[in-house]
Each structure stands twice: as structure tokens, then as C-alpha cells.
Amino acid sequence: MNKYFIIGIGGTGMRCLEAFIHTCAMGMFDNSEINLLALDTDLENGNFARLQELVDAYLKTKGENKTQTPHADTFFSAKINFYKFSPDYSRTETSSFQRIAKTSYATETERDLANLLFTDNVQAFDLKHGYRAQTHLGSMLMYHAIIDEVNKNPGGNMSAFIDELYNANTAGSVKLFIMGSVFGGTGASSIPVMPAALDTAVRKRHQGKTLDKLFVGATLLTSYFSFISPTQNSRELQKIVADSKNFSMNSQAAMMFYEDDLSVRRTYQKFYMLGTPTNDFTTPQAEPDTITGGNRQRNDSHYIELFCAFAAYDFFKNPDADLQKIKDDKASGVQYYFRSIDDSQKLDFKDFLPENEASNIFLKKLTLFTAFSFLVGLDNTDFFASAQRGDLKNITGYEDITKVELDALLKYMGLFHFRFSNDELREGWLRQVWRSSGGGERFMYNPEMFGATTVRDLRKFEFNKLFSKSSEYQRHNFSVNFLTSPFDRFKETFVKETSDGAFANKSEKLIKRMYDTLVKLYSF
User: Fold this and answer.
1) 84: which strand partners?
2) 282/175 Cα distance (integer angstroms)
3) Is there a single domain that holds both residue 190 and residue 212?
4) Is 196 found in the same domain as 56?
5) Torsion of Cα atoms, 250 then 252 then 258 then 259, to 10°
6) What angle do CA 164, 201, 331 make, to 5 degrees?
7) Structural domains counted in the chain
8) Which of 250, 291, 374, 467 sits at a 20 to 30 Å CA gap from 257?
């Protein structure tokens, strides 16, 4: 079993983790245990809430109140251990740096140094919604927040993640990947200090031991979206507000720092630099002013976050010997990696994973999982719920799947692709990613699938034709005769597919058998 560690930091990190979990759900991490830490100063953030929903649905789909087990050649194959941590800036007496400094830095010299380094507005703004592009302040606060947490809360999530990391390091080499932006607040603040903070935390909890076998990689995610610029009234009220018009400049300054700072270069082995040519992608927003955080901050997903997920995939698949060679090179340190797409701006499976074998795996996994979404939750083709109720001829043995497991899968697939509210179609992650690519034929699948914007349209879409006739992957579509629907063809093939795997619970058994059926239908 592979054992990997991944940290998502800040609002952008939450959306990158969301994309990463979808790669786990589609089966990209077979026989793997993923230790996942969501780290943000604002756990009331709407993107974190969506991530939490996604993780809960993933875990319950694999079995209600059962020990999670990694599998292979099925959906939801990876075992996920979920941790979360947020520095507590919600209390009135510690909601700004001025109040923290007053209690933590008692000497006059320390207070004078703070006044020299930080303006009055930077010291006074409310930290509950994060560091708001004030990376010089955020790096210091996040580093000490992690150390303080392991000292004061030995039974908390952060301490448990640190212990899991230490135990893996004791057993052998261990890989950690960090996701976040370099243009914003929390992620940009935390990426430079994270390896040092984790190592110090391990020293404090484990008698001076170090993470001597740790390999670390990270995304350096530059600006790729924008939001409403803050009004003058908002600036006066909030003291400090991030402005997306500065994101490109922030990104350039951050790149200079990562290139020049030797201490950072020596603590990382690989940096994956990702971004878009412009940051003109905007998410729908009803409010007339900038949202600094909280539950109202629910930014749509973007294809660049899927690139981040596959950067983690690439890093985890690197041989230890290659990473050790980089680690031993003290003169040069970290290596940089880039990804580009062709002039057509169309996204292809091979853009996410360049090697033929790996890109073919992505083609298979995402295609099967997209087809699977039409068999869960869509009333005229909801195979999973029908099998659980025992409504399908010649298909029995799945009636003891619990309602919790059924509801969890419905929830997950709704977050992945589509769901309904009062007979209106609500777009999930996949549809948002398609829209961020520019729509039309710029994303790999048949645009008619995404063009279905009502429940009625979606019922009519023939999921056996996921690829358009002009696609090079059109060979994976499967045919039906004029008397048979794709749903009927699936049922016929499912009955002939007798294996459902040696899994502990019926939910995973049914999912495995549906997976194998789809493999045959789509000719993988």
C-alpha cells in the first residue's frame, strides 16, 4: 500500500484538494492511503464547507461505520484520512495582530520591531478571514500557530497529522505535497515556512527527532481568477482587503522570492509552476462588494486546480532515488516544472499527464466516472438506488446497502457532476471545470452533455456517447440498437458481470461491479 501526505492551504488550496479528491474517487490512486490536511485561517469559508461535504460523502460511500480500506480497479479506491486545522483568530481578544502581539511579545523592543515591520492597518485588520495578501505577516503567524497548536493541543488534528507523518518517516521515506497559491494570503504565507514548521513540530513532539526521510513538493500557483475590486468604503471598514488586480504583480514578486531564497530551495525537491495567461476567470457573485471570507466565499472550480491535483500525482509517482538526488544537491536545490497546452487552448487528457500510459489511465478513469454519474441520481437511469431497493430484474443482494451509504453516494455524485433542486439542474465540479476552460469543445467530452441545462435535457442525453463524433476518443463510445437504451444495455451487461470483489460492504461491492461493467461497455 502506498502512503501519501498532502496539505491544501487557503481558499485556493481547498479547491485544489477538491480536485484531488475527485481523482481519488475516479480511481487514480489505487491501493493508496492519503493523509490529507486542510489548513486555513477561515474554516467558515464556503470552499472549505464544500470540501468537508465532499470528504464526508467519500468516506460514507466506502461504508457507514466501517474501517476504510484501499482497493484497486474501482471507484473510491483510495483510503482517505482527513485532518483540518485553523489558527483560532475568532476570539475578540486575539482577532488582530495587535492583540496577539500584546499578549505574546511583552518587551518594548519586540513591540518596536513589530511597528517597524508592519503598518498600523496591517496590525489592526481582523484575521478571521485570513491574511489577505499580507504574506510577510502571515508567514510568521502561521509558523507559530502550528507550533503553538502541537504544544497546547496534543490530541488535536494537527498533532495527529504530525504524528502520522513522523511514523511514516520512521518506517521509510515519505512524500508530502503542498497545494496553495503564491498570489494571495494564507497559501502564499504558508508554503515557504511549512516544511520548517512541520519539522519543528516533530522535534517538539518526538524528543528532537527530525523528518530526515521526507521529500516535499508543492504547486506555485500563480494568478488565474479575479473578483470585484473593493470599494473605498470596504477598504476603510476592513483596513486590509485583497485586490485581484494586484495578483499578477504578487505572482511575479513571489517567483523572484522562490528563485532567490536558498533556505526554501533546500527544503523542497520539486516546484510545479502553474497558472493561466490572464486572470479573467470570474465566479458568479451576487454581492456588490468584495467578499473577504466566511460562508459566502464559494468560488467556482477551475481546470487549473485539476492540473494541481495531477502535479501531486506526478510527484507521488517519482522514484525515491530521483528525489534523493535532488535533495542531496545543496548547490541547486529544488527543481522547477511547468505545464503548457497547445495553441488551440483545448484541454486533452495528455495535457494533464504527458506520459502515454499515464494519460490513458486518466482517460479511462474520468470517462468511466463520468458515465457512472449518469447511473446515480438521475431518476430515469438511477441504477444504484434501484439495485439497493431490489427493483431490478435478476439483480439482487444489494438491499442491505444502508440509507446513509446511498445518500452519501448521491451527495458525492451531485457535487462531482450535477444535482437537482426544485427540478432545476445545479452544476457540480465537472461542469464548472468545463465552463472555466471556455466551454464548447475545449474540454475533452461531448459538449452536448454540458449543454443540457435542464432535467429534461439531461434525461435525453445518451451517456453512451460521451465523446463527439470528431473526437479521437470516439472509439470508446458504445452503440445501442433503436429498441434499446444505454441504460438497458448497461443492465444487460451488468447481469453478465458476476464479480463484485471481495469487499467488506455491499456499497463497495455494487460500485465495483458497476465499474467492471463500464470498463467492458466503453472498451477499456
Assistant:
1) 38
2) 34
3) yes
4) yes
5) -160
6) 100
7) 3
8) 291
